[in-house]
Amino acid sequence: MNGRDPVAQSNAPTNTFEGNGIMSKRTAVVWNPSKTDRRELEQPLIASLDPGSDVSWFETSVEDPGQGAAARALATAPDLLLVAGGDGTVRAVAEHLAEARAGVDLGIVPLGTGNLLARNLGVPLNDIPAAVERALTGDGRPVDVGWVDVDLEHGTERHAFVVMIGFGIDAHMIAETDDDLKDKAGWLAYVESLGRAVAATDVLPFRLAIDDGPSHDEEGHTLLVANCGTLQGGLALLPDADPADGELDFVLLSAEGLAQWLGTLKTMVWDNGLRRMITGGEASDSDTITHGRAQKLHVSLPEARAFEVDGEEIGDATGITVEIQPSALRVR
Question: What is the CATH number assigned to the segment(s) 2-138?
Answer without folding.
Answer: 3.40.50.10330
